[in-house]
Specification:
Length: about 270
C-alpha cells in the first residue's frame, strides 16, 4: 500500500480507537483537525493513542461559529479562545484548524451581514493566536475568496508560519494571489486537494497547474481512516497524470511539501 501523509482529515469523528489502528492508517503521519470545542477531547484521545502518528489541529470551523459564538453572548469567543490556547500549549505539535470562512453557511443565517462579520472576527482572532504561538493553520474557504484575501492582507505582518488551503476550490487567479501574498509575508503556503471534495469538477486541475506540484498536498477529508488510503492514492495518481510524472516522483514531491509543513511544529524548528 502506498504510504501517503493525510494532510487534512477528521478521523476522530467516527473512527474508533482500537488495537492495531496504526496498521489501517494511510501513512506515517496524519493531520487530524477538530472543528469545535466539543470534539477536541476526542481528538486528544487519538493523539494520546498514536502520539507519533497523529498531528492534531484545534480550531473553530466557520460552520460552528453561529452556534458556538452567538452574537448575544459576547464572552463566548474569549472563553473558546482561552480553551484553544490551552490545547495548543498542551500539544506543541498542534496546528490551528480547521478555521476559515464560509459564505454559503453565512447565507443560511437570518442576519447574513452579521453572520459574515462574526465568522470574520472568529477567523481573524484564531489567526492572531496561530501567529503568536507560531503554528501552521488549515483553512476552510467556500465562496469567500475576497474576504479571505482581505483578512490575510490585514494581518500580513502577523501571519502564521504556514497556511494550507484545505480542499481548495477557488480560482487559479485567487490561488496565485494567495501565493504572492504569502511570499511577500515570508510564510509557507500550500493548496490541499481531496478526492471527496475536488473530484466533483476539474477546477482543481487548473489551480494545480497554476501553482505547481511543489505547492500541493493531498488530503482525504475523511471522518474515519477506513477509506482514506484509497482516496489519497487516487489523488496522487491523478496528480501524476496531470503533471505527466511517475507516481513515485509525484509522491516524493508531495511528501516533501508535507514534511516542510509538519516540521514547522517540530522541536528543532525555530
Amino acid at each position: 500500500m502506498m504510504q501517503v501523509t493525510d494532510m487534512h482529515c477528521h478521523y476522530h469523528v467516527e473512527g474508533a480507537i482500537a488495537s492495531g489502528l496504526e496498521k489501517v492508517l494511510p501513512g506515517p503521519r496524519a493531520v487530524v483537525l477538530g472543528t469545535q470545542p466539543e470534539d477536541w477531547n476526542a481528538l486528544a484521545a487519538w493523539v494520546q493513542a498514536l502520539p507519533d502518528t497523529i498531528v492534531p489541529g484545534f480550531g473553530l470551523h466557520p460552520w460552528n461559529v453561529h452556534r458556538c459564538c452567538p452574537d448575544e453572548d459576547p464572552d463566548c469567543l474569549d472563553a473558546i479562545l482561552d480553551s484553544l490556547e490551552r490545547c495548543l500549549h498542551r500539544y506543541p505539535q498542534a496546528w490551528v484548524g480547521e478555521i476559515g470562512l464560509d459564505n454559503r453557511v453565512a447565507k443560511q443565517q437570518p442576519d447574513r451581514p452579521a453572520a459574515r462579520a462574526r465568522q470574520r472576527l472568529v477567523f481573524a482572532r484564531q489567526l492572531v493566536l496561530a501567529h503568536r504561538l507560531q503554528r501552521p493553520v488549515s483553512l476552510h474557504n467556500l465562496h469567500a475568496a475576497g474576504p479571505l484575501v482581505e483578512v490575510l492582507l490585514e494581518q500580513q505582518g502577523a501571519l502564521p508560519p504556514g497556511i494550507v488551503l484545505h480542499s481548495f476550490s477557488g480560482s487559479p487567479e485567487t490561488a496565485q494571489r494567495l501565493v504572492a501574498l504569502a511570499r511577500e509575508a515570508g510564510v509557507h503556503i500550500a493548496f490541499g486537494f481531496s478526492r471527496a471534495v475536488n473530484a466533483r469538477s476539474d477546477q482543481w486541475q487548473h489551480v494545480a497547474r497554476a501553482v505547481g506540484l511543489d505547492a500541493l498536498v493531498v488530503e482525504s477529508d475523511r471522518l474515519t481512516p477506513a477509506h482514506a488510503a484509497d482516496d489519497l492514492t487516487w489523488m496522487v495518481q491523478a496528480l501524476a497524470d496531470l503533471f505527466d510524472l511517475t507516481v513515485d516522483d509525484t509522491l516524493q514531491r508531495l511528501e516533501a511539501t508535507a514534511s516542510l509543513f509538519l516540521a514547522l511544529t517540530s522541536p528543532t524548528h525555530s
